[in-house]
Amino acid sequence: MKYLLDSHTHTIASGHAYCTVLEMARAAADRGLELLCITDHAPAMEGTTCRDYFANLGVIDRELFGVQILMGVELNLLDTEGTVDLDEPLLRRTDMAIVSLHTKCIPTGGTAEGYTNGLLQAMKNPYVNIIGHPDDGRYPLDYPTLVRAAADAGVLLEVNNSSLTPGGFRVNGPLHCAEMLRECKKQGVPVVVGSDAHFVSYVGNHQYADALFQELNFPEELIMNRDSAAFLAFLKARRAR
Prior knowledge:
Layout: E1 5-9, H1 21-30, E2 35-41, H2 51-55, E3 63-64, E4 67-76, H3 88-91, E5 97-100, H4 112-122, E6 130-131, H5 143-153, E7 156-160, H6 161-164, H7 173-187, E8 191-194, H8 207-216, H9 228-240
């Protein structure tokens, strides 16, 4: 399958990534992508950018080097009640939003019920489009409930290529991602692959996700990266709810 979009990347604005928007867009063009999502970390992440960065996203061209650009955000889940770290006026200025669990923003050691509830409550936010890397063993999740809720809310679950990379820092990412994918396959719920690139060489890198899809015989029609127009329609439908 040809992957036509990358739904999760970071620039120097995130504080621990190393390239500019232009450099990331050029890398996407070089790799034949049609669509690139820039999703820098929201303000609760240590060392990231400020609120004004997200307030000013409108100045950035939405096509660079022949690649369509979406300027989004990777929100941080702050508690088990669904609180995230950008408010509605700023989220309206983004093209899309991922919400993820990060150790610098929400404690580990909780229950699957608690973390799952946090994500389910975050899905009620109409600006949330994707649940980022729901695969880290430090944050146990109830996958049948999460998958069913994502389908009901019109939210995509992410297969994070970085989580699947050998030696990655998330705990048992491949094991938990496979569990989620089996449930998505069972329920017929789509997913999206994000590279989580923090440097140009990783833009559009979906190799480990692709290998897992093949291992699980996961249906191509449930992978949103094969059709950028369908992905954009999915985002539009979500915000229209």
